[in-house]
Amino acid sequence: MNIHILRSKAEIDRAVADLFIEQVKANPNSVLGLATGSTPLGVYALLAKDHKENHTDYHNVTTVNLDEYIGLPDGHPESYKEFMKRNLFNHINVDFNRVHIPSIQGTYEESCKAYNDLLNQFVPDIQLLGIGANGHIGFNEPGTKADSKTHTVLLAEKTRLDNARFFNHIDEVPTHAITMGIQNILDAKRIVLIATGASKADAIYKMITGEITESLPASFLQKHSNVDIFLDKEAAKLL
Ligand code: GLP
Fold first, then answer.
1. Which family, according to the similarity comment (predicted)?
2. Distance from the CA of 45 to the center of ligand 1, in angstroms?
3. Is 110 part of the annotated catalytic residue set?
4. What one-character-per-residue DSSP string does 115-147 give?
5. Which ligand 1 atom is the nearest neighbour of the CA of 66?
6. Ligand 1 mean position to 56 CA, how many Å?
7. Is 203 in the pocket of ligand 1 (CB under 6 A)?
8. What is the ipTM of this complex?
9. Three-class SS of residue 4?
C-alpha cells in the first residue's frame, strides 16, 4: 500500500482528481470505478471544473459504481444514482449508456448476476473508494468474505446511523443495499482510497497495520499490489 498523508482535504482532492484526469487522457476508453458518500465530493467537483475549463473528454469512458441502496423510490435524491448525476455525471460529458450503477431489476439474484457479468466485462482501470467508520468498503460490511462478488446486504446499524445525516430520519435510511463484492473491488487494476477526519482513524489504523480479516473488510486491500491511500493528519493519527 502506498500511503500519502497530505496537509488538507483540498490537497487530497487535487491529487486524486489529477490521477483520474491523467487516466482518462491516457486512455479515453478507460473504465472508472466510482464511489459515493461525502468523501469523493471534492474530487468530483474538480473533475467537473476540469471538464468545463479543459474539456477532458469522458464520452468513451465507462463508469461502474460500487453500490446502491435498495428500496428507495426512483429519483429519490439520496439514491446513489441521483447522487452521481447531481455531483458528477451532469457536469461531464459521459455517455449515459456507459454509466453503470447496480440496481434491483427482477430478483435480487438476477440483479447481482447482471452486475457481476457487467463487471467481468468492464474491469476498472482505477477504482475510487471511501471507507466506513467500521471498515466497510462499498457496502461490504464486517463479515463479508474475500471472494464475495456482487451481493445484497443488510446494512450494519452503524452504517445506517452514519448515513442518517442525509435523510430526514433514521427510519428513512434503507436497511438493505446491493454492492460490488470484495473480489470485484480487488479485480480493479488500481485502487485509490481516501479517508479524512478522526472518525476514520481507527479503521485506517486497522486496515494498514492490522491482520487481514473479514471483521475489517478494508484490510483485504492489503492483498492488492496497486493501492494508494490518501489520508489527512486526523485520519492518519493512529499510524
Ligand atoms: C457509504 C458508502 C461507502 C462510503 C462510506 C463512507 O456507506 N457505501 O462507499 O465509503 O459510506 O462515507 P463518507 O464518505 O460519507 O464518510
1. Belongs to the glucosamine/galactosamine-6-phosphate isomerase family. NagB subfamily.
2. 17
3. no
4. HHHHHHHS--SEEEE---TTS-BTTB-TT--TT
5. 9
6. 27
7. no
8. 0.95
9. strand
132 in contact with ligand 1, CB cutoff 6 A: yes
CB 48 within 8 A of CB 13: no
> DSSP code of 226?
S
How many other C-beta atoms can be found within 10 angstroms of the C-beta atom of residue 175? 13
Give tens-digit pLDDT for 44-64: 999 999 999 999 999 999 999
Determine how β-strand 67-70 pairs with β-strand 176-179: antiparallel
Average pLDDT over residues 63-92: 97
| CATH number for the domain that contains residue 165 | 3.40.50.1360
The answer to whether position 238 is within a domain reads: no
Q: In the predicted model, what is the mean pLDDT of residues 159-168? A: 92
Task: Find the catalytic residue in 13, 125, 141, 162.
Answer: 141
How confident is the model at residue 158, as a pLDDT?
86
User: Could you tell me if residue 239 is inside a domain?
Assistant: no
Number of domains in the chain: 1
Per-residue pLDDT of 185-237, as tens digits, reads 999 999 999 999 999 999 999 999 999 999 999 999 999 999 999 999 999 99
Q: 141 catalytic, yes or no?
A: yes
Domain that includes residue 216, residue range: 2-231
> Using a 6 Å cutoff on CB, does residue 130 contact ligand 1?
yes
